[in-house]
Fold each of these.
Amino acid sequence: MTTSPDVFQKIVSHTKEHGFIFQSSELYDGLGAVYDYGPLGVLMKNNLRELWWTSMVRLQDNIVGLDAAILMHPQVWKASGHIDAFNDPLIDNKDSKKRYRADVLIEEFIEKLEQKSQKETDKKATKEGWSVDSDEYQRFLKGNRDAKKAQETQEKFSVAMENNDMVALKSLIEECGITCPESGTRNWTDVRQFNLMFKAQLGALAEESTDIYLRPETAQGIFVNFLNVQKSSRMKVPFGIAQTGKAFRNEIIARQFIFRMREFEQMEMQYFVKPGTQQQWYAYWKSERLKWHATLGLGVGKIRTHVHEKLAHYADAAEDLQFQFPFGFKELEGIHSRTDFDLKQHQELSGRKLQYFDPEENASYLPYVVETSIGLDRLFLAHLCDAFTEENVPSGNGSEETRTVLKLHPLVAPVKVAIFPLVKKDGLPEIAQNLLNDLKYNFQVTYDEKDAVGRRYRRQDAKGTPFGITIDYDTLKDEAVTIRDRDSMLQTRVPLVQVKDWITKSLSLQSYFKESK
Ligand code: ATP
């Protein structure tokens, strides 16, 4: 994957052109940070959700599923702390009238300093002949002017965030000389807290209606159902509850495509453990989730871990798995040790006991929770960015051409097989249609008989279809077909009767997931 803003723009255009993602309400000039998934997008999104569900529920013997409603009693959000503390600090530039997240402006400033420091160090190392792991290199990397400034800013930033000190955030923005990317000026308003929850009205009459909220995370549906699930499914601690579903946040900045959306989908698993064992489970789930990503092609070098500087109000440890998007390493998934904060809060506010009776200990307690939380849309974007490739390949006439190919993991790819009769006559389309009718019960299959086969291959490359099957004149004699591999472009001759087995083996969940165990 190439990392540059140009590439990101190409990826965004590619998703529209091929029916992966469209701007919501585009007809009316769009709705900011809201997107629709097109024919290929919905298939790929379903695959990712299904892969997550399989590994988190189906392949586990102590994790069960849930599908809680989006609308919940307003007290839920009081108890969870979202009404009081689910805020982002916002700041406006008076000249451009553009709104920013104050914390993001500072974080980006620090990141730029770190990049400058890295560049400077690499330049110096080339001149001096230092290796990356030499003491001189490391000393210069930490000790140069930009690195020191980054460190100093980070320290002040952490304190301001820790204390929710909006005045200190504004002062830091001024002190660092941060300018508005749009107007280039430093004419800023004060920093204000902004609650990210969407409000709605429940009830027909305005005077009788109650304010409710669109859920900003799926987790609370799991917490309030904790005992319902535990008792009905006879679960014993440690056990997990998994859920996928929509969440809504009135994000201040609507940039970076589906990375930050106002309506998005989360896939969360809350693992209930005995108090005191949370660190061990936290390490376990972090490692499991890293393995899962690696199995699907997002392995070492593409994902790094990042420990939270400022812990959320509910956590005693938190780490992000960050993916290298074209705009830098950014959070893809959160692993959080949430203590018994949520259960305790719900117990207090509802006045109902949420304690678990542990038959082995012969005691009741509130379990601690370790959570894995990933955005399905962000995962989609990570796979898309990782897969997008432009490469030179030999063309039919002996010269070279550029092909755009989505090298998606075969389990993630929206369409698995494309079937092409070489020509539209002599019985080849009939054989192709019979094959399609046989395969379609097991796989997402497509059929294409228009244009030269080379062009049909390119069309499927752009959609990320891993296997292309061609029925040619030899098929009439040897009852075999050619299967072309999308990435290597190698072709294998396979007897027609063995095609289904061949594809089944190539897409075997068991072989991918067993190997990673
Ligand atoms: P960020 O710091 O990027 O705003 P967060 O720390 O608020 O994210 P969490 O509350 O931990 O995110 O949510 C868990 C996951 O949900 C994130 O790792 C991310 O994948 C996804 N997510 C959160 N906010 C959004 C959003 N606005 N659009 C798309 N996905 C999101």
Amino acid sequence: MVKGVIFDLDGVIVSTDDCHYLAWKRMADEEGIPFDRAVNERLRGVSRMDSLNIILEKANAAYTDAQKEALATRKNAYYVELIGRLTPSDILPGTLEVLRELRKRNVKIAIGSSSRNTPVILRQIGLESAFDAVADGNQISRSKPDPEVFVLAARLLAIAPVDCLVVEDADAGVEAALAGGMKALGVGSAAQNPRATYRAQSLADVDLNTLLR
Ligand code: BG6
Ligand code: MG
């Protein structure tokens, strides 16, 4: 029986893909580093610094750690400007209905996100007090596919990993959930992931009776 559901944030509850893309693109253009949507796809679920390292694979120059910090900080400033425009209308279809239904069934709900901007995003979309626990990029040192963020979320919920279901749009996130001993529902970009325990296009297409078994 599933007693807790842990939701990834970006790409599951709200689509911030474009904000990430536009912010990285602005920084990459300024630096003359080739960056496109295909590279952006590889950044799904990956931490900010790991994302930068992927982008820098195409850079001609070598960057010191201090320069990398500065690039990541600059990208984040552009990103924060963009997510400042998010509103509750950006919550992805099906999300609020699923959260409401889980509450009704006494299933605990948490966020498990790599993003250090999680508190800002939750505030922007009006869900800052909707979850029983929030585990995010500010509290962890290892990024997905390491299970650290989901293990922390389960611990905060006081529920054994085996009784948790993770909802993820990133392949790295599906792996993280499985590595943590949890079930995984792949949605969006992970909707075809054969490794996921369950698959759905979005939270608007799920059957909770099946998922919570
Ligand atoms: C994840 C996104 O949720 O958060 C990644 O899928 C992003 O694309 C990561 O790099 C870290 O985000 P932030 O907000 O801490 O830069
Ligand atoms: Mg995601």
